[in-house]
Amino acid sequence: MKFIKAHATENDFVVLIDVDDHNDVTPDQVAFLCDRRAGVGGDGLLRVVRRDGTWFMDYRNADGSVAEMCGNGIRAFAHVLVAEGLEDAREFYVDTRAGVKHIRVLSADSTDAVVAVGMGAVEVTGVSTASMGDHQFAGLGVNVGNPHLACVIPGLTAAGLADMNFVAPTFDPEFFPEGTNVEVLTELRDGQTHMRVWERGVGETRSCGTGTVAAAQAVLADAGVEHGTVTVNVPGGAVEVELNEGQATMTGPSTIVFRGELSS
């Protein structure tokens, strides 16, 4: 089976081309392929499938668990469709376990792309807390097709965030019965925030696309602003998130690193 290694703001993926949906993968196979020492290496795996005339992104976390949606992953997915000649249009739809997403490929070649994704509705689910080592945070519960706890820390600087000892968080299992992603954020300043994220089923990653949407929602709410556009800076780069009337659009880069073929 052909595969592609891709990343979107350094959130990296093994992408399997399985248009005819003949090669489902087990959790153990996913974990092996995502292993950075024994496999290809990645934060997750994307399987490119065509079902009932619509593209479907089958996304798995690095531990093999099934995930509803990945915002960075869907940019890489769309890039692969165009770069590999599987999709001629520059505007199309991709189905996910979190619903159908509207895609606009703003630019693309065999290695680099810029993709805008209609992320759909953003739902604020309440306020909760998390602990990370010696730190305790209050944050906004946000559903972007998957769960997030986005924590804006008063007075936190970008340098302070970078120096923070980032470890596996604990959170309220009653508030998040399926687990959650946890974002730690600086306050909104000049239309920007800085973010680090601990992803459910993965650990800390260089970026999380749905997390940047949750981050934008949280920093705007913290600033008392209902709508707006936020540049979310992550260790792997930056994306732009526009929130308007409860709907989010995320725009950011994708890079194809290399192509290969699995022997078995």
Automatic annotation (TrEMBL):
<feature type="binding site">
    <location>
        <position position="181"/>
    </location>
    <ligand>
        <name>substrate</name>
    </ligand>
</feature>
<keyword id="KW-0457">Lysine biosynthesis</keyword>
<comment type="subunit">
    <text>Homodimer.</text>
</comment>
<feature type="active site" description="Proton donor">
    <location>
        <position position="70"/>
    </location>
</feature>
<feature type="binding site">
    <location>
        <position position="146"/>
    </location>
    <ligand>
        <name>substrate</name>
    </ligand>
</feature>
<feature type="binding site">
    <location>
        <begin position="199"/>
        <end position="200"/>
    </location>
    <ligand>
        <name>substrate</name>
    </ligand>
</feature>
<feature type="binding site">
    <location>
        <begin position="71"/>
        <end position="72"/>
    </location>
    <ligand>
        <name>substrate</name>
    </ligand>
</feature>
<protein>
    <recommendedName>
        <fullName>Diaminopimelate epimerase</fullName>
        <ecNumber>5.1.1.7</ecNumber>
    </recommendedName>
</protein>
<feature type="site" description="Could be important to modulate the pK values of the two catalytic cysteine residues">
    <location>
        <position position="148"/>
    </location>
</feature>
<dbReference type="GO" id="GO:0009089">
    <property type="term" value="P:lysine biosynthetic process via diaminopimelate"/>
</dbReference>
<dbReference type="InterPro" id="IPR001653">
    <property type="entry name" value="DAP_epimerase_DapF"/>
</dbReference>
<keyword id="KW-0413">Isomerase</keyword>
<keyword id="KW-0963">Cytoplasm</keyword>
<dbReference type="InterPro" id="IPR018510">
    <property type="entry name" value="DAP_epimerase_AS"/>
</dbReference>
<keyword id="KW-0028">Amino-acid biosynthesis</keyword>
<comment type="pathway">
    <text>Amino-acid biosynthesis; L-lysine biosynthesis via DAP pathway; DL-2,6-diaminopimelate from LL-2,6-diaminopimelate: step 1/1.</text>
</comment>
<feature type="active site">
    <location>
        <position position="70"/>
    </location>
</feature>
<comment type="similarity">
    <text>Belongs to the diaminopimelate epimerase family.</text>
</comment>
<feature type="active site" description="Proton acceptor">
    <location>
        <position position="208"/>
    </location>
</feature>
<feature type="binding site">
    <location>
        <position position="61"/>
    </location>
    <ligand>
        <name>substrate</name>
    </ligand>
</feature>
<feature type="binding site">
    <location>
        <begin position="209"/>
        <end position="210"/>
    </location>
    <ligand>
        <name>substrate</name>
    </ligand>
</feature>
<dbReference type="GO" id="GO:0005829">
    <property type="term" value="C:cytosol"/>
</dbReference>
<dbReference type="Pfam" id="PF01678">
    <property type="entry name" value="DAP_epimerase"/>
</dbReference>
<feature type="binding site">
    <location>
        <position position="11"/>
    </location>
    <ligand>
        <name>substrate</name>
    </ligand>
</feature>
<comment type="function">
    <text>Catalyzes the stereoinversion of LL-2,6-diaminopimelate (L,L-DAP) to meso-diaminopimelate (meso-DAP), a precursor of L-lysine and an essential component of the bacterial peptidoglycan.</text>
</comment>
<feature type="site" description="Could be important to modulate the pK values of the two catalytic cysteine residues">
    <location>
        <position position="199"/>
    </location>
</feature>
<dbReference type="GO" id="GO:0008837">
    <property type="term" value="F:diaminopimelate epimerase activity"/>
</dbReference>
